[in-house]
Amino acid sequence: MRVAIVHDYLTQRGGAERVVLAIARAFPDAPIHTSLYDPDGTFPGFADLDVRPSAIDRLPGLRRHHRLAFPLLAPTFSRMRIDADVVICSSSGWAHGVSTTGGKLVYCYNPARWLYQAHQYSRRLSLTRLAGSLLGSPLRSWDRRAARSADAYVTISTVVQRRIEAAYGIRATILPPPPGLDARGPARPVPGLAPGFVLCVSRLLPYKNVDAVVRAFAGMPDERLAVVGDGPDRVRLRSLAGPNVDLLGSVDDATLRWLYANSRGVVAASYEDLGLTPIEAAAFGRPSAVLRWGGFLDTVEEGRTGVFFDRPDPEAIADGVRRILARQWATADLDDLCERHAPSAFERAMQGAALAVAGAPRAESRP
Predict the structure, then answer these.
(1) 5 DSSP assignment
(2) Nearest 5°: phi and psi at 228?
(3) Exposed/middle/buried for residue 48 (C-beta within 10 Å: 0-12, 13-18, 19+)
(4) Helices and strands, number each (H, E), in the chain
(5) If you compute the radius of gyration of the chain from its CA atoms, what whole number of angstroms results?
(6) Contacting residues for 342 by C-beta, under 8 A, at least 6 apart
(7) C-alpha span between 48 and 79 (Å, rounded)
(8) What is the side-by-side strand order in the sheet with 263-268?
(9) What pTM was computed for the model?
(10) Which residues contact 163 (CB under 8 A, 6 or more apart)?
(11) Contact, 88 vs 139, CB < 8 A?
């Protein structure tokens, strides 16, 4: 079976990029097609794979500033035609638009936020909001045609399954991805940071609500917060951070392992479609305090692997953090969460889904 993988763009170090690496482990001979590829901006594991960027990858500046490519992405993927028995589209908005000679399996993180959740996604990203308002109607038509061209949809969580059904009328199969960080690898300490802090791992985007987490620690001067991640909100967060907050930016896996292992717990106030950080934290025996919303409802068991807070505001966040720090957590409960999201189980399920698509009748509509 000839398999190819398609992903929106490989320019960041985030959860979706880790999932692409997990899919590639299930299909080690599959080439990876994408619009933009920044080897320095994404995970080093891609350097060992057959990554094939599109022609727009040669345009100056787009690798480092992928949002500038917004008007070019739908045409770019529409022009891609891939010869394979099965194409696996790892998509949150663009990759599912490719054409293929074989079957198309979409692994969907979310229907395009800028089309269906525009206010939440772009409340501080004016360029994205402007492009979305100007191109919204034709892009929604393109997006729905692309969705109908798939032979099967797989998604990450219950909340995204509902969104896919609302946007496209398609019932997706739920297959949560595994955590991309192997707890057994090497660890590298952060100079000057003593163990015992609370960890927040997030892209610095408005809907991630990292600003509310930073403000929560202003009211907890005896606790320390370490924030891992980068993004457009970085400068604003620096202005909000007090002396007990460390903004570490992007870190490598060895440093992230040390941070998880030496934290007392993890906090996340973001509107997550899945929320892998509680699973990664559990692999290091750490609980999580998370927003009661979206994908976290699938990845946190209240009282067993973490706690929920109901609003992404500093007071509610601080209360959640205090609750995870105030008790001991059973290692067996945290281990059980990790086993249910093991990489080997994900790889077998993806192989089975691809085989099913390879043997199924083709979808009637192609972009």
Answers:
(1) E
(2) -110, 130
(3) exposed
(4) 14, 15
(5) 20
(6) 178
(7) 26
(8) 245-249, 225-228, 197-201, 263-268, 288-291, 306-309
(9) 0.78
(10) 110, 111, 116
(11) no
- Tens digits of residue pLDDT in 234-272: 999 999 999 999 999 999 999 999 999 999 999 999 988
Q: What is the percentage of the chain residues whose pLDDT exceeds 90?
A: 80
- Structure confidence by residue, pLDDT tens digits, 144-163: 999 999 999 999 999 999 99
Phi-psi label, residue 322: left if phi above 0, alpha if psi -120 to 50, beta otherwise: alpha
Amino acid at 171: R
**Euclidean distance between CA atoms 179 and 14, whole angstroms:** 11
202 by DSSP, 3-state: which? coil
Pair of tokens at residue 161: 């399954």
Q: Letter for the amino acid at 49?
A: L
* Residue that is written with structure tokens 């997030």 in the block: 202
Task: Give the phi and the psi of residue 255 in degrees, each rounded to 5.
Answer: -70, -40
Q: How many CB atoms lie within 10 A of CB 39?
A: 13
How are beta strands 152-155 and 173-174 bridged, if at all?
parallel
Helices 70-78 and 126-148 cross at an angle (nearest 10°) of 20
